[in-house]
TrEMBL record:
Keyword Transferase part of the UniProt annotation: no
Pfam name, any one: ECH_1
Gene3D superfamilies on file: 2-enoyl-CoA Hydratase, Chain A, domain 1
Localization (cell): Peroxisome
Name of the protein this chain belongs to: Enoyl-CoA hydratase/carnithine racemase
C-alpha cells in the first residue's frame, strides 16, 4: 500500500505511504493519488481533502531510480495516470485541498503547494525544487503558480537555484500559510480542515471555482511550455549526468558538458 485513506468529519486524509523511499512518487503512487483525488471529488460525503506524508518526508519528488529507467528504457511500462494525470486531478479537484508538509519536500513534494488551498508546514520541514540540479525544467505549472504565490524573485530563487528552502523562509515568502511544531502539525491542519468541512459542499465548490477558474487557461499554457522544455532536456547530457551521479551516489559534475548545456 503506497497511500493511506482515512475519513472523519467529512475530511478525507490522504497519507503518502512510501516512507522507506521518502514518499517518492513512482508510477504506482502517482496513480494512487490521482485516483484518490478523483474519488474524493465524486464522493458526496467528502467536503475537504487533507494531504500529508508518512515518516520523515512529505515527498522526495519523483523516484529518480525509476526516472532513470524511464529515460533509458523505451519499453518501460508507464502507469494509468502517471505524473500528467495527477496534475490533471489536482487542477480539476473542485473541493478544498489542505496540505500538511510534515518533512522534506522535493520536486512535486514542493510544487504541489501551488494547488493547495491551505498549506501547513512543520517547523523542521524544508523544500527544494531540484530542477536545475537534475538538468530539467520546472513542472506542475510552478513557473506560473510560484511567482503568483511568492513573487518573481523568491520564485526565481526556488526554481533556479535548486537550494533548500527552510520552513521559516517558505512561510515568510507566502508559500505556506502557517508553521506548526512537528507534534502539532496534523492536529492544526485537521482542525482547519474540519472547519471548512462544516460548511456546505456546494458553497465550498462554488468559492473554489470562482477563485481558480480565471487561472485555468494560464495553468494549461504553463504546463504546455514546461512539458516542451522538459521533453527537450530529458535524456540530454545534463539530465543523464545528474541521473547517473544519483545512481552512483556522487554529486553531478556539469562542467564538462557540451557547449550550451
Amino acid at each position: 500500500m503506497v497511500l493511506r485513506v482515512e475519513d472523519a468529519n467529512r475530511v478525507r486524509t490522504l497519507t503518502l505511504a512510501r516512507a522507506e523511499a521518502l514518499n517518492a512518487f513512482n508510477e504506482e503512487l502517482y496513480d494512487a493519488l490521482a485516483d484518490a483525488l478523483l474519488d474524493a471529488a465524486a464522493d458526496s460525503s467528502v467536503a475537504v481533502v487533507l494531504l500529508t506524508g508518512e515518516g520523515r518526508a512529505f515527498s522526495a519528488g519523483t523516484d529518480l531510480l525509476e526516472m532513470q529507467q524511464i529515460a533509458t528504457n523505451p519499453d518501460f511500462q508507464r502507469g494509468k495516470h502517471g505524473f500528467p494525470g495527477l496534475l490533471d486531478a489536482l487542477v480539476d479537484f473542485p473541493k478544498p485541498l489542505v496540505v500538511a508538509v510534515n518533512g522534506l519536500g522535493l520536486g512535486i513534494g514542493a510544487t504541489i503547494l501551488g494547488f493547495a488551498d491551505l498549506s501547513f508546514m512543520s517547523t523542521t520541514a524544508k523544500l527544494k525544487c531540484p530542477f536545475t540540479s537534475l538538468g530539467v525544467a520546472p513542472e506542475a505549472a510552478s513557473s506560473l503558480l510560484f511567482p503568483q504565490l511568492v513573487g518573481r524573485q523568491d520564485a526565481a530563487w526556488m526554481l533556479l537555484s535548486a537550494e533548500w528552502i527552510q520552513a521559516e523562509e517558505a512561510h515568510a515568502m507566502g508559500l505556506v500559510w502557517k508553521l506548526c511544531a512537528p507534534e502539532d502539525l496534523m492536529a492544526t491542519a485537521r482542525r482547519h480542515a474540519v472547519v471548512l468541512a462544516s460548511r456546505p459542499i456546494s458553497s465550498l465548490v462554488a468559492v473554489k471555482r470562482t477563485m481558480t477558474e480565471p487561472h485555468r487557461a494560464a495553468i494549461a499554457a504553463a504546463r504546455e511550455r514546461e512539458n516542451a522544455a522538459f521533453v527537450e532536456l530529458m535524456g540530454g547530457p545534463a539530465n543523464l549526468e545528474a541521473l547517473t551521479a544519483f545512481a552512483e551516489g556522487r554529486q553531478p559534475d556539469f562542467t564538462d558538458l557540451p557547449p550550451g548545456w
